[in-house]
Design brief:
single chain; 238 residues; mainly beta; four-stranded antiparallel β-sheet; 22 strands; 0% helix
């Protein structure tokens, strides 16, 4: 049987070279697909609950999955084998990301923390603590020095990766922050919220630069264009 066996597809990612797509599903699996043909190439099996987030490493050789089973896992793209299990969160892992150099993994969880992990060993490196609600979304800055987290506590935070210290608290939403992204130059951050808006922030000052208003329901996902001049934001309803 090809494709997911049932349940929602919760997350998708493209490989850096655009050849592959990865999907994570409520059927507890992630599936690697060939974009040109739409064929299933690998099925990543091992999670015991829904796969909520997926990411490719910068070199495209590894993938990272985060699950409601409270773990994140690193997989070999070529074989589909699990090579690292990142264990330590006490609640669901909602969001995952690789650092730009591929050495670190970043996870955000319902246990109100984000954590960085050494990809080569699977060991926890830093615990980012300060949110009072679930951490719904995580991202690395393009230079790898900062992490961005979005939380149910209605805020986003910028963290120093080297020390684990919170550097900025981005306050301006009136409901849960569902998605976060850095601009390609790292100067700006974008957040999408259940308050039906997306906000553009100056990372250096923590100030709101633009408020994007118009959606009539939750803004669940945000992204910058490759040149950083425009943003994409996706809502529950159009």
């Amino acid at each position: 049987q090809l494709g997911h066996s049932g349940g929602f597809v919760n997350a998708v990612a493209f490989s850096p070279d655009g050849r592959w797509a990865l999907t994570g599903s409520a059927d507890n699996t992630a599936v690697l697909w060939e974009v040109a043909t739409g064929r299933e190439i690998r099925r990543l099996e091992g999670h015991s609950d829904s796969v909520e987030s997926v990411a490719f490493s910068p070199n495209g050789r590894l993938v990272l999955t985060g699950s409601m089973d409270k773990t994140a896992r690193v997989w070999d793209v070529a074989t589909g084998k699990e090579i690292r299990r990142l264990e330590g969160h006490s609640e669901w892992v909602n969001s995952v990301a690789f650092s730009p150099d591929g050495h670190l993994a970043l996870t955000g969880s319902n246990d109100k923390t984000a954590r960085t992990w050494d990809v080569s060993t699977g060991k926890e490196v830093r615990r980012l603590e300060g949110h009072s609600g679930w951490v719904n979304s995580v991202a690395f800055s393009p230079n790898g020095r900062w992490a961005l987290t979005g939380s149910n506590d209605q805020t986003a935070s910028v963290w120093d990766i080297a020390t684990g210290k919170e550097m900025r608290r981005l306050q301006g939403h009136s409901d849960s922050v569902e998605s976060v992204a850095f601009s390609p130059d790292g100067r700006w951050a974008m957040t999408g919220s259940s308050d039906n808006t997306a906000l553009l922030w100056d990372v250096g000052t923590g100030k709101v630069i633009r408020r994007l208003v118009g959606h009539s329901d939750n803004v669940n996902s945000v992204a910058f264009s490759p040149d950083g001049r425009s943003v994409d934001r996706k809502s529950t309803r159009l």
